[in-house]
Amino acid sequence: DWTPAHFITDTIAALKKQIGDNKVVMAISGGVDSTVAATLISRAVGDKLHGIFVDNGVLRKDEYETVLKTYKKLGLNVKGIDAKDDFYKKLKGKTDPEKKRKAIGKLFIEIFQQEAKKIKGVSFLGQGTIYPDVIESVSVHGPSVTIKSHHNVGGLPKKMHLSLVEPLRNLFKDEVRKVGTELGIPEDMISRHPFPGPGLAIRILGEVTEEKVKLLQKADDIYVKALKDHNLYATVWQAGSILLPVRSVGVMGDERTYEFTVALRAVTSVDGMTADWAHLPYDFLANVSNDIINSVRGINRVVYDISSKPPATIEWE
Ligand code: XMP
């Protein structure tokens, strides 16, 4: 019988055998899959796992600090790399969604490779690949971009002569979550919505700047916290905020404002391939809208996305 406990015991034994006295390098993102995979590897070989967590400047508000703290608590040997400024430099002037994605993916791989090189005698590359990733070779965005392209360091194993360690290769998402819970990974991390590798960069339409990131982080944080407070977070498959590249007129006290609009998105879905917009309660949306407009200077209008996929996609870019 498959149980999380049995899976963990068997997998740790298999990982010990596979890895032996060698070292494993792995990019960890704060997502469920990479966190569960890294925890399993760490239980098997301890600090021979070298995790790398990169702040690419387009994470959610406080995410870098929070995730690093959780990793420390879990006893993972993870190095945090603050590369925000490098990413902002690469994103400067770029407005095309695919160019933004590529710029982020390329820099991420460069940084990861640089860090991996510093670890003497590393021979394995850890990855949080799960069964649906294995079977889903077709991209949702067309030929150039696949889901998880950001963490798909596919070219690396060959180039760096690394062998893959993928302890979750045969599991579905719900099984990964059960294993994670059994491993003592906090509920917050286990029940996280999927978050795209290029992060807020594809939720800031047009050019990404540090100022826009800060603006969107504030609005998004209000939205996500409210979803959690009202027990709505778990009822949707994914939720997020999008910063639109238009400004519109508003009024505040007796002053005229001319500020940005944020779009809120929440969808129900099974696998992200199709999705329906979530019918969040009007009262809830009204409160979130008020909170954002009253507390985030620079945003004077909030709209709710009522488009389903297809033909709309979940992300706006
Ligand atoms: P779309 O927008 O195509 O998104 O309906 C479907 C799912 O894929 C995620 N997504 C990405 N994930 N890199 C990622 O790692 C990407 O470039 C990317 N684009 C979309 C999206 O968040 C949703 O869960």
TrEMBL record:
GO MF annotation terms: ATP binding; GMP synthase activity
Keywords for this protein: ATP-binding, Glutamine amidotransferase, GMP biosynthesis, Ligase, Nucleotide-binding, Purine biosynthesis
Catalyzed chemical reaction(s): XMP + L-glutamine + ATP + H2O = GMP + L-glutamate + AMP + diphosphate + 2 H(+)
Assigned GO CC terms: cytosol
Function of the molecule: Catalyzes the synthesis of GMP from XMP.
Assembly notes: Homodimer.
Name assigned to this protein: GMP synthase [glutamine-hydrolyzing]
Natural source organism: Flavisolibacter ginsengisoli DSM 18119
Source organism phylogeny: Bacteria, Pseudomonadati, Bacteroidota, Chitinophagia, Chitinophagales
Shown chain mapped onto the complete sequence: 195 to 511 of 511
